């Protein structure tokens, strides 16, 4: 099982539909994923049905971040490997945590679990992420887990009438 402390990662299940619907349709995050229209429940149900497919087939893997408190276990977000490139042994990483669970340490532990999975189970050589320059919380999260800045895309994302730069960070497996 992909677990550390009180956080575990698991494949999406049908009961995660409401949480995923909330995450994917949060318009404040759409500019980060180039989303321009809402996701339907049907689309998300189909995504969940494909979630058990091999990463080598669909080139991505989504995990639900689950938190345990006492006897309660509940989802707090999702973490993804995307643009999986087995030939170059790399993948992108994305994390989304429900607003009410942000800044509680769940994302950091989930990222540690995902790094271990990517390097020690899939055998990837590197992970990367793209984060807006003004997203200090996410930048600190990834930098604290060993990711280093490797590029800057000027005026990359547009939100309303405002352009923001996007930084690219990467973590190379040194083993």
Secondary structure layout:
Layout: E1 2-4, E2 7-10, H1 17-24, H2 30-33, H3 41-50, H4 55-58, E3 61-69, E4 72-85, E5 90-97, H5 106-122, E6 126-132, H6 136-144, E7 148-159, E8 162-172
Helix pairs in contact: 1-3
Describe this entry's structure for a reader:
- The chain has 175 residues and is of the alpha+beta class.
- The protein has a single domain, classed as Gcn5-related N-acetyltransferase (GNAT) (Aminopeptidase, 3-Layer(aba) Sandwich).
- Helices cover 30% and strands 39% of the residues.
- The chain has 6 helices and 8 strands.
- It has an 8-stranded mixed beta sheet with strand order 1-2-3-4-5-6-8-7, with helices on both faces.
- A hairpin with a 2-residue loop joins strand 1 and strand 2.
- Helix 1 packs across helix 3.
- The model has no long low-confidence stretch (mean pLDDT 89).
């Amino acid at each position: 099982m992909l677990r550390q402390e009180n956080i575990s990662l698991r494949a999406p299940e049908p009961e995660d539909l409401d949480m995923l619907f909330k995450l994917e349709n949060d318009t404040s995050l759409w500019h980060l994923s180039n989303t321009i229209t809402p996701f339907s429940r049907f689309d998300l149900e189909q995504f969940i049905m494909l979630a058990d497919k091999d990463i080598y087939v669909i080139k991505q893997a989504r995990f639900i971040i689950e938190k345990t408190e006492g006897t309660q276990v509940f989802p707090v977000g999702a973490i993804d490997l995307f643009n999986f490139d087995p030939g170059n042994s790399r993948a992108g990483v994305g994390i989304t945590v429900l607003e009410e669970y942000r800044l509680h340490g769940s994302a950091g532990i989930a990222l540690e679990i995902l790094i271990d999975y990517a390097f020690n189970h899939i055998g990837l050589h590197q992970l990367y992420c793209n984060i807006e320059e003004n997203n200090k919380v996410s930048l600190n999260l990834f930098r604290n887990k060993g990711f280093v800045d490797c590029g800057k895309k000027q005026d990359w994302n547009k939100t309303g009438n405002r352009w923001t730069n996007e930084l690219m960070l990467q973590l190379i497996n040194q083993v």
